[in-house]
Amino acid sequence: AMKFKRMCADIIQLKKKYNFHVAVGGNGAWELAKSDRMKIHGIDTVVVGEADELALDLFEDMEKGNAPELMNCFVKNIQDIPVIEGPTVNSLIEAMRGSG
What we know:
alpha/beta
């Protein structure tokens, strides 16, 4: 937790200097999806779920300064989830992707 807080403090200082947008996602991103937590950590956008189909739109919105604070993404078509083609860890099969 301390490394994360230090990293966020560094990012906040860099944002002041270079004026960039911070978007986070991945496992556990939902924990940061509250305005007060986002502000404390210097986060502008939290992406919850699968952003594969929407990432380009998000990047374009970030460039324009129109990115949403929270972006909830869902897989529209089950066929878009890739098939597991290689070995798994300890013979386990993941039944979800991302923060599922």
